[in-house]
Amino acid sequence: MSLLPAPLAPVRPAFLTRVTPVARLTAGMTWLVAAIVTLDPAVPTRLVVAAVVALVLWSGLPLRRIPGRLAPLGLAILSLTVFSILLSGSNADRSIAALVELGPIRITGPAVSAGLAIGIRVVVIGLTTLLVFGPSDPTRLADSLVQQWHAPDRFAYGTLAALRVAPILAGDWAVISAARRLRGIQPRGAVGRTRDLGDRLLVMLVSSIRRAERLALAMDARGFDSGIRRTHFRELRVGWRDLLTVAVALAVAAAALVLPR
Amino acid sequence: MKTADPGLDRGPAGVEVGASSAPPARIGPPSIRAAGLGWTYSGRTRPALQGLTFELEPGRVLLVLGPSGSGKSTLARALAGLVPHVLPGDWRGQLRIGDLDVAETPARVLGERVGLVFQDPDSQLVMTRVDDEVAFGLENRAWPRDRMQARVPEALRQVGLSGFDRRRTATLSGGEKQRLAIADVLAAQPSLLVFDEPTANLDPPGMYATLEQLAALARRREHTIVLIEHRLEAALPLADDVLLLDDEGRQLAFSRAGAVDRNAVAMLERSGAWIPHAWQGTNLSSRAASQSVDDGPGPAARQVLLEATDLQVDYPADEDGPHRALDGVSFRAMAGERTAIVGPNGSGKSTLLFALSGLRRPDRGSVRLRALAVDGELAEEMRDPSRLPAEEIAPRVGVVFQDPELGFVARTARDEVLATDRAARGRRGREGGPPPDADGVLARFGLGYLADENPFRLSQGEQRRLSLAGLVIRPPAVLLLDEPTFGLDRRGTDSVISLLNELRATGQAQLLATHDPRLLPACDRVVALDRGRIVFDGRPAQFLADPPYALAEPWRDVVVLAETTR
């Protein structure tokens, strides 16, 4: 039963699908740093434009499904922006002219621009994450982390196995919650709800530990982490695409930072 | 499946393999020798295995039979070296695989000789893509890349999954996943293969494909094979030898499959295990007795308790496009009626249970449920469960999920039995009357001594019974069960059926989604689903005599079985 949407995966070969994950990770980092180091909303705005261009031209991802995937993030961004505007300190500064004044609510120009700057940064983070993780499956990232950044096997592949089990756990959670409803258990009030959530989490914890134990045993049975240095089925070499990706990302980040408004 | 007389058509297999053009790394199938083998998991007082002493010749197929708790899985783990090298506990006696002493050989070395396939495909696949999955074990054993690249497609071809290399493992069916798990172990070219209930989680087509795969491996005689499998009618013909264990992990017999001691079989049956019907004498009919038609529907019968009309359920599109799980399903359940819902995985069984219990609102169509009246009179009109608050759902419909653990709502067995009643009383203030007799219910379900125990600490069979016991006080009018006999031995299955009989006496309508053909004779009606549509609706006997096209092949063994138990 599919309770979670299918992961967003490339539907056609594209430039970024052939770039090793750690190169995409490095490239993405440059954008995140650029988006965070300045308060000027122009910088993240330029990066958003660059990210959209990259998604459309080089990610290979199904474009029609991207807005749907980003919708929950969009809601978060919207509320974050609104609250940042409402709660900005400059609203209280009577020396700045108000754009809006509605009873106790007073909103100034600097508050709006600061709020928008925060919101648009989160958009950069969302789109960059999509560019980094979207174009290849998590296995490639684990391979890449182990082969190129020498991350420990147990960490990288253990996390990978956990990731594979995640949708199954989501199904378990639905069953746990349904079971309580069907027994007529309907928590009331904040205390009741909190206690109910705690009970459900406990069941979830016990059952996911059991699942993890079974999976760990199966991995051990196949010789995982038995002291031999693992070989790799799929070789990941740093190639011109990787270097180009990092170089271009760096150039875009620099341009976004230094270009005059 | 296997035609030749076992054991006569081959010499010492090790010699043969050495003489052939097989890769030099390949070692001939080993013998297995156990002498006084025993194991107690740390923290337990009762041994999981005790005093196993047998000698299996190289290249033979051993079928292990025993009830729940007989140590079958522990034996599988010992053969793979997980016991004693990964799991803690107390080891006794000796186990040798060929020239290796298991207790003294590092798990790494054993791992190169032994391949172990587990029961649940979802708990043994590691990678997200099929070719990576097969390569995982080879990477761990440091195979050079070029050999892996040659071996991975070979292993996939061996299990009939050629061309699946780039598929995501999550998109495979249960049977495909399990064949992939077999490819995983075959890839490393082990000489001993151990299968721990490899078909238990599979639907009939998946089970059939996996058993075919086992049969093919058994015929090739390249491996020594140890098989733990409860689909005995299909498994027994593959076996050269059998090992019988009792419920305390003791050896009842080790012998040729065709010459089993009748006393040992009788003891095996008394211990609660499934028995192949070829071994059943005329007096061994305890199972059929408990499944025979009970008192039948009570006075409330012929009342419609559930009515589903033209149900359609769609799941969001994935890479295979939009998915219609139910497509125009209409169906009624009457008071006192027990219906089996069968069909391959993905045919819509689980979705139907979710829709009927109001957990998933259908995209089209409607579900109406009636609460069961106390005096044979149905006062209330029928309601849509997806629009009702929890307190009004509980009297109408209950669900026993496949994994009972996920359904537990309390910290002790006693509270679990009382939970529905407590929730109902809690809402109506201090409702009068003494509290219900929870301990009495537990005692009737054979759980009396566990009243204060945490539900999570019970065995699989006990958990299943507790999940039913929780539905006895204030029973729902309609009971939906997802694979209610999953993983149970004969004794466990029998007790579930008699508990269901007890619940049905209240006039309850019961719907069982199941892959277990042995349950069908205990039902009044069979509804078969295929790709979201009802393809059969009728009596069990009719279904078994002439199963609908898509299901015919996998259910064939069952027809024989049903005839012998009738």
Question: Would you tell me which CATH topology of the largest domain in chain B applies?
Answer: Rossmann fold
CATH class of the largest domain in chain B: Alpha Beta
Query: In order across it, which strands form the biggest sheet of chain B?
Result: 6-7-8-3-9-10
The chain-level mean pLDDT of chain A equals 83
End-to-end separation of chain B: 25 Å
Q: Unreliable stretches of chain A, pLDDT < 50, 5 or more residues?
A: 1-5
By CATH, the superfamily of the largest domain in chain B comes out as P-loop containing nucleotide triphosphate hydrolases
Q: Figure out the total of helices of chain B.
A: 20
The mean pLDDT of chain B is 82
**Numbering strands along the chain, what is their spatial order in the largest sheet of chain A?**
1-2
Helix content of chain B: 25-40%
Most extensive contact: A-B, 57 and 79 residues
The chain-level structural class of chain A is mainly alpha
By DSSP, the count of extended strands of chain A is: 2
Overall 3D geometry of chain B? Answer: globular
Tell me, briefly, the overall form of chain A: flat
Number of helices of chain A: 8
Describe the structure concisely.
Chain A has 261 residues and is mainly alpha-helical.
Keywords for this entry:
heterodimer, A: 261 residues, mainly alpha, 2 domains, 2 strands, flat, B: Rossmann fold, 6-stranded mixed β-sheet, 33% helix, globular, disordered C terminus
Topology summary:
The complex is a heterodimer of chains A (261) and B (566).
Chain A (H helix, E strand, L loop, with lengths): L20 H17 L4 H17 L7 H22 L10 E5 L2 E4 H25 L4 H11 L4 H30 L6 H33 L18 H19 L3
Antiparallel strand pairs in A: 1-2
Helix pairs in contact in A: 1-4, 1-8, 2-4, 2-8, 3-4, 5-6, 6-7
Chain B lengths: L12 H7 L12 E10 L7 E8 L4 E5 L6 H8 L2 H4 L3 E9 L2 E2 L5 H7 E4 L12 H11 L4 H14 L15 H14 L4 E5 L7 H17 L3 E5 L3 H4 L5 E5 L5 E6 L5 H9 L15 H6 L12 E15 L2 E14 L3 E5 L6 H8 L7 E6 L20 H4 L3 E4 L3 H4 L5 H15 L10 H7 L15 H10 L8 E5 L7 H15 L4 E5 L11 E6 L2 E6 L1 H6 L6 H14 L1
Parallel strand pairs in B: 3-8, 3-9, 6-7, 7-8, 13-17, 13-18, 15-16, 16-17
Antiparallel strand pairs in B: 1-2, 1-4, 4-5, 9-10, 11-12, 11-14, 18-19
Helix pairs in contact in B: 5-6, 5-7, 6-7, 7-8, 15-16, 17-18
